[in-house]
Amino acid sequence: MSRLAILGAGNGGQALSGHLALEGHDVSLYELPAFAEKLQPISEAGGIELTGAIEGFGKLRSASSNAREAVEGADILFLVVPSFGQMPILEEILPYLREGMSLLFIPGNFGTLEAAARLREKGISVGLSETDTLPYACRANSPGHVHVWGVKTGVSFASFPSKETPGELEKIQAVFPFKLNPLANVLESGLSNMNLVVHCAAVLLNAGRIEATQGDFRFYTDGITPSVGKLQELIDSERIQIGKALGLNLADAREWVRRAYSLQGETLYELLSKNPAYANHGPDAPKSINHRYVTEDVPNLLVPLMELARACILETPITRSVVTILSALLEKDFARDGRNLQKLGLNGMSAGQIQSYVTNGKA
Predict the structure, then answer these.
(1) In CATH, which of 3.40.50.300, 2.130.10.10, 3.40.50.720, 3.40.50.2000 is domain 3-184?
(2) pTM for the full model?
(3) For this structure, is 145 an active site residue?
């Protein structure tokens, strides 16, 4: 039995905490004090009830907003929150981190790079790793009751710096209930998150439908038409181009979806609109374009893609157009406030220096 802490009590955090507890591990669940109300029913029940693709009741050691209680004594910390929640939780747990701990971002969305800069300021050394995606397609019907529609066959994994990937992977794989597939570095991990390709384009081209119906349609099936799929594939082409400039041979989005869900299809439209993991659970589209598919994915995925292109002296006209339009519609400056080169600790580096930094921890 390993002692583990899940940081973040949203859909994914609850699913993972219940799943790991069912696997026999000693698991604590933590949430920021501002969102602690969702923990009370979980604490009273003593754990998480999972239904669907995973069935059973996972008994937890604790469910609280006490960071010290959750973190102290844990060997591995799983940070399972949207990107905008990563740094607030990191600040809460900083006093209780110790050498030898491993911190896994699920998904990373380049979060390890921002965290590395913060930890360096504080003189703290822990293992930093990230996955490219959440392994579950799930929804918390109520606190402590999570329905899992589907699970991925595996997720991709990288550590910062990548020279630490073999050791961190071995440690985390011993408890993680999904296959971890090692990547070259955390740039490949961030650039392999298919939310970058799927979410923002689909919200933009479905903006009228979202606002007219308040999200009363199936986002990944009804909302993915041939034209939406084409825009997604154009963004994907720019992603692959930037990857090549950084020495990465990224799988295209179509191959990624085929591999993750064991599906067949030639286009993203075919693969997404006919995916049974998303097609059979009713309306799930955003009720507004002011949704995390935009407010999280534009600043933390599309902006890093544009910024990495700038470091590589390349252009991303399709991605930049999507960022520009969504920024205008929501009256936000995503390029300024998102994960730009400065926030990622990459400012002033060339493509070669960035590759050295993510490999060795120094440019």
Answers:
(1) 3.40.50.720
(2) 0.89
(3) no
